[in-house]
Amino acid sequence: MNFLTLSDITLHFDLQQAAADKPILVFANSLGTDFRIWDGVRDRLGADYTTLCYDKRGHGLSSLGKPPYSMADHVADLTGLLDHLELTNVIICGLSVGGMIAQGVYASRPDLVRALILTDTGHKIGDADLWQSRIDAVLKDGLSVMTETVMERWFTKTFREPENPVYQGCCAMFERQDPRGYAGTCAAIRDTDFTEQAKAIMVPVLCLVGAEDRATSPTLVRELADLIPDAEFQSIEAAGHIPCLEQTEAFTTQLEAFIKGFMDQEGRLD
User: Fold this and answer.
1) Cβ neighbours, 10 Å, residue 98
2) Cα(77)–Cα(190) distance, rounded to whole angstroms?
3) Side by side, which strands form the sheet with 90-95?
């Protein structure tokens, strides 16, 4: 296990290094999850990519810090980790709040970013009342009372079968997050609007969404793609909010096709 202390936070991360000439993929996970949601994708990518995963503050094995958080806190955590590891020219693949963190990294440190894969996310997600009501409920009653409702937003009905061990593992992963870290990150999402920042993104971008996502709908993700100059938009069938788990092979195929496409374009431009 690898840990790094940055200011008020200790981050848990995992770096799998490939050859120096291979692309660097950085994965930022969603609210209420840890970085194990990317395991299947990383296995399929193999040695063709250097990959970095980390648990954002208040999630997984990273420390709690001082919630509630701002999006700037999450962005500073990731940029601090990249600087520590001396990683630049990275492709950031962010899911849900991870996609917002990715947008924030580009806005604050475009020198670090080669491309963005913004998955099941938006320039703004929900409204203040929605997030405040969730914060209040989580801090009062914990996460387990929300499991069924959250899983209905995360996954399709087919995936949510009691016999599916991956689904059962996802329920356990969600319930074992720290409610204070979860609520703290809800506050960061509540207070974030990247509408103007999205218009200024000038690197290759893929906006990807599960076709049955009930948390960040395909309509929302399409709106984000329309804001970003020349962004691509793709959907994944039979997937909800976390397609990297529900349709791992299809997700990885889309990711690699996008990367190959813009890298081929870079070669032609040279």
Assistant:
1) 29
2) 19
3) 2-6, 9-16, 50-55, 24-28, 90-95, 113-119, 205-210, 232-236
Q: Tens digits of per-residue pLDDT, 129-151?
A: 999 999 999 999 999 999 999 99
**What 3-state DSSP class applies to 11?**
strand
Task: For 154-207, write each residue's pLDDT tens digit.
Answer: 999 999 999 999 999 999 999 999 999 999 999 999 999 999 999 999 999 999
**DSSP conformational letter for 59:** S
Q: What is the CATH number of domain 2-269?
A: 3.40.50.1820
Q: What is the rounded CA–CA span in Å between residue 170 and residue 189?
A: 22
Output the pTM of the full model: 0.97
Q: How far is CA 89 from CA 20, 38, 232, 253, in A?
A: 12, 20, 20, 22
